Amino acid sequence: MMITEIGHYALVLALGLAFIQSVLPVWGAKTGDGRLMAVAEPVALATLGLVALSFAALTVAYVRSDFSLVNVFENSHSAKPMIFKISGVWGNHEGSMLLWVLILVLFSALVAIFGGRLPQTLRATVLSVQGWVTAAFLLFILMTSNPFNRMIPAPFEGQDLNPILQDIGLAIHPPLLYVGYVGVSIAFSFAIAALIEGRIDAAWARWVRPWTLAAWIFLTLGIAMGSYWAYYELGWGGWWFWDPVENASFMPWLAATALLHSAIVMEKRDALKIWTVLLAILAFSLSLLGTFLVRSGVLTSVHAFATDPTRGVFILAILVIFVGGSLALYAWRAPMLKPGGIFAPVSREGALVLNNVFLSAACATVFVGTLYPLALESVTGEKISVGAPFFNLTFVPLMIPALIAIPFGPLLAWKRADLAGVAERLAAAALAALAATAVTLWLSGATGILAALAVGLAFWLIVGSLTEPVQRAARGGGGVGPFLRRFFGLPRAAFGTALGHLGMGLTVLGIAGASGYDHERITSVVPGERIEIAGYDLTFEGSTPRQGPNFREEVARFAVTRDGLAIAEMAPTKRFYPARQMPTTEAAILTRGFSQLYVSLGDPGADGRTVVRAQFKPMVTLIWLGCVMMALGGCLSLADRRLRVGAPRPARRAEAVA
User: Fold this and answer.
1) Who contacts 539 (Cβ-Cβ below 8 Å, separation ≥6)?
2) pLDDT tens digits along 311-351
């Protein structure tokens, strides 16, 4: 089809424009040539149009099942449902890289459109840095990962998409995650531009924060969606495995979280300049590292793309150039930046610095645990596995003091604060934490002490996060009416902060319940037999075959009762995809309040019995509800007028009048 050739040529033209964007605007900023700097905006918009055209062409090929394209042949099937034909566009290496670049040029275009308040030289330099990244990845796609490669003659049928990717969760998860991954490139570009110009101030932090916050929101949602997909799709009932590719998305999130808090200090107090710039560089560097881990072939994971070594070497070169180059520039220019304001250790700045220290240390432990096995294997050939025990012993102890400190931060004054007074204001949160711990121990029969303490920590976060806005609205007195007016009149950023911290508390509560008080039974049954778990009775009623659009499945039926009362029917399945010759497990999940009953099927036994894995997960849905609430808090903060307005536009000099 001609549309395919158009998509290919559009990528080539986009590469040419990316080279123009990467050179002319920064040269104009260096020489003071306004015409060269003005090139950045239209070129960024034109590049977006060309990459969008290319992505649309690939999507059309998938929708029409054009198996003359190698990419479509290897990842699609004519009988596949339409939603998975579309999601198959990014369910493979080549298509996902094209989506990656599409989001990258979209962010560049947004800077061009909404960056009118930026100084012209800064805007031109930022867009040039974005052009460098765009050119590198377009070159990578065209040289090693072209999604428009043809095969002649065209086969009549495709090989189908990996069955575990044929799920609505995997249709949503990659775009969300990529927006977060790529969004931190804007903070990176601002950091490099500031180092090139040798000037960084509170206005710079005000410009960086909205972009970082937007990327953080999507990273949060993307990680949460991936966690929930693994929970219900893979059949093992877990929500986090410390898989290297999971860690690859978690590390940029930790760095972006630290960057958000550091930028607040820089904006309010003109402090932590050098550290904030470094965090902006590291956040995107970790994003590039995640791209390398997934696509280099060094990992074996359900998330990783099987790739040839050429792609890994190319991405490694990109990683070395951008990370090494940016850190070299930082080492050269950072000492020239002026130090920021001074503050006492006990202050809001001090609390945010403490937050940064623990987040950075936690990120470092994840980094070491993820890369050490790879480094050891490459040097000695020895293979080791670093899993949950390592991270539980290193990451968790670092996060506990960081979580304890969260409610203190918003209550502390800038520059210097009274710690005893703030602790007194958090008395209600402390009492709630103690009561929650005691009640949990009583209900559990004094078992699971660590989980009970985690429940107390969650209530400390939940009540503590609400303390600041409630006390802030109560200062004027005057009864319920004035209190409500003051409360709803608070800035959106105040609600955003409270919701973000409250969401973290809900996630901790969900983790405590699902990890500390879950029940599991693995057994084999025949029709008529019952499984008892956590007060529920599951009666196996038999199984029946069923034909899907591109798969066959065996559907098992379980009648669920509690105290003799019928509640629901659960129907887990085992599927088989003939095109891929692959089986999958589809779990059945029954939600009761914030808890879930989870049933999945194992392989059939030789005696005709059906192997069943039944689990009861208390409060497990709070893990993802908390993530959604954190993202909602980020959206509220992003909607705050003070953040949307940004730094004021420099006043024009009055022309001299003769």
Assistant:
1) 528, 529, 530, 558, 559, 561
2) 888 888 999 999 999 999 999 988 887 766 788 889 999 99
